[in-house]
Amino acid sequence: MLATAPDFDVLIVGAGISGIGMAAHMRMKAPGHSFAIVERRENLGGTWDLFRYPGIRSDSDMHTLGFDFEPWRHEKSIADAPAILEYLNRIVDERDIRRHIRFGQKVISADFRSDEARWHVEMEAEDGTRSHLTANFIYLGSGYYDYDEPYDPGFQLGAFEGQVVHPQFWPEDLDYAGKKVVVIGSGATAVTIVPSMAGKAAHVTMLQRTPTWMVSRPAKDGFANFLRKILPETLAYKITRAKNIWMQDFTFKVARNKPEKVKGNLRKGLEKAMGKDYDKEAFTPPYNPWEQRLCLVPDADMFNAINAGKASIVTGHIEAFEAKGIRLKSGELIEADIIVTATGLKMAVAGKIAVSVDGEAVDFAKRFYYKGCMFSNLPNLAVVFGYLNASWTLRADINSDYVCRVLNEMRARNIDTVVPVLTPEMEAQIEEDDIYDFSSGYIQRAKHIQPRNGVNYPWRLNQEYVVDRKLMASDPVDDGILAFRRAGANAQRPEEQLEAAE
Q: CATH top-level class for 8-148+346-495?
């Protein structure tokens, strides 16, 4: 092995769901490996700490958004951000992970040096000071969107005399009591904000260019809560999780195979929540269910706000922003004191880190996914990009488990480098597939920066958790594609050494 060890065996980037999940899996399944988590923010939680808008909650049930190893104990399965943060903090403290987290450290660059079999990682603190560490393996739990910059649709807001806020940068002291609020957008964020603000605001209007398919369900999972009363907690969670995974998979496949049937069921749900005379045009998208994510409306909260006259939906295109509100191309003026631009996220790859190998920049758009976890010809690096049609954590769990198996195999063989090898001859045989078969705007806008995707496993990011879980667990780590190598040298200057924290 290496004459001089790196600072850490594994560097985990991000202390959100993905990063915390990987650390917990390492404590259980690869305990002989050292690790550190670097987190750019001052708190853990990722998305659930960053977003502070009213009502912020999960749009997946917590029995699948929760980890496979840690039961979700709250009564509500559609949980708000504070409950999710409590769950993550409990895991971090009970599993002795917190001392391994370095907060306030943004990873700027990572260069893998083949002769040393290690990543040289440059980080920056809030005050601009730089630090450096080394790691044999990097696990990217940095999410999928740009933390610094949301999507900008190019609105010319200068004439508007009121306040403009974006959900990604919500002001702590925003006073909207008794004010007219317009939320631009129709995705999960808008559907969360509208009913949450409707209680205090004079009126909340959701201004949408295109409707979204919506479905109501109880925030509390009666089945899960019943099982917890009669069964041990771990068993009850396992059964509920299996049931919900099956339901996610089933409903997605039915939506894709029998879209008209699903449309009919969704319309029945809307009619039940809002009455037979509900505005069908406002709730009928021009695409089939699950061509974009279905918007979850827990306990029919948004429908109730509309029925009570506290909220409304307007469908139209914006002509201009005026002093007192938004002028539509139809000529209608929607008055507003506050405009919320819930216009979507801007996707990012690898946390916008400048990744390179031996000084040569890595262009992820030229690399193929390998088992939805690693990338072609890129050594000692894994990533999490969750499911579009199911809970994010499902992929985080199976990827963490797989990487732990890889780490243990490396240790057993006394080697320091693993790389999914894709030769030009092999690449020429790959039939490419659309990496995300979804029409959502944030996905379509970012396709040019996304890694490549094959039709067939293992060179793909698949969207079938049940299939992926079986393949990732049953396929041997040494599958003839993942190459195990040993570095030829281990040159490291003394001044680059970093003392590892206990």
A: alpha beta
